[in-house]
Amino acid sequence: MKQLSTFWYGSKLIAALLILTFFSCSENDISFNSDENMLTLDNQEQFDDLVNFVMTADSAEIADYTSSLDFKSLKVIMQEVEAAEEALLAELEAKYDPDIPREREYAAITKQYLEKGVLRLDEFGIPELNIPIPAFALFLNEEREVKIGDQTYQFDYDNIRIIEPESRTELAVNPVERISHEGGKAGLENGKSCTSTSGKYRLITYENNLIWSTGNGVPCGDSKFSHWLLLRSLKKVFGSWHNHKTSALKIRGSVRIAHYQILYPSGELKFIRYMTFENNYFYNLPYDHTEDHYFVRDYPLKYGINNECISYQIKFDYTYHTGIGKNGTGCSL
Fold first, then answer.
1. How confident is the model at residue 166 (pLDDT cuts 50, 70, 90)?
2. Is residue 127 part of a domain?
3. At a CB cut-off of 8 Å and minimum separation 6, what does 207 contact?
4. Is residue 138 part of a domain?
């Protein structure tokens, strides 16, 4: 077993040190077990620290971390798929008139990973990873798995499965819950996304609210909450929409989401804390076709100030998010 620690010399030392800098519990090394071909963590605390790291790391830190792994992460797989899709599209554009509609084609590697369940197709037929949270692509392998303690966890878009490693017995399935909230702007098809189109260019801004768990539910639920924006830049070619890289992606707005305890038997709400509170934020997102920004990472819902089990309520005080894209595209949620 290879340990990502300060004693791991060679080209991966910088990335290992970088990762441990972000981890609050540096005595617990992140380990990689080559026999299982997945990232192996000692405990849930390490997993939580890793999630916080991948959701806040910049592009340079992400590149260092990705290169430190001895297996191909979903991030690398997706980069290969995107490169193959771009190459196929360029080849087709050189042969045919891109303004004349034709049946959509996918690269061979894309078809392969769709069949394996590594990828899924979004509402525009665009391949995306079959996982609940995009940032998880940085540490999951092709089987979408990570080992935490004595158990293996497999992630897909709708569920998180807990598996006993030796027998591969499925011990539990934790469904992920995507929630929307009241107060969406008039004219939106739903409270989760908005679309802006200008000529051949389109921007989609998604607001994601996800309740998820990698716990076993003992002594009470281990639910966590994540809130993030995802922007996708598209270009119309052959009558269908395709990913289009641009440096124009930006977000601005204000957001405040609060955590309350439900008191029984009265049903009154007791304020615990704000999960996020940002007024008049503005962020330039890196150069790509799909970018995300996390406002709430892995906030524990069922635990109060003294770690007691509680019944909870999420209150969206306000979420005013505006995505800005290429060619004057922009929309608000």
1. confident
2. yes
3. 191, 192, 193, 227, 229, 319, 321, 333
4. yes
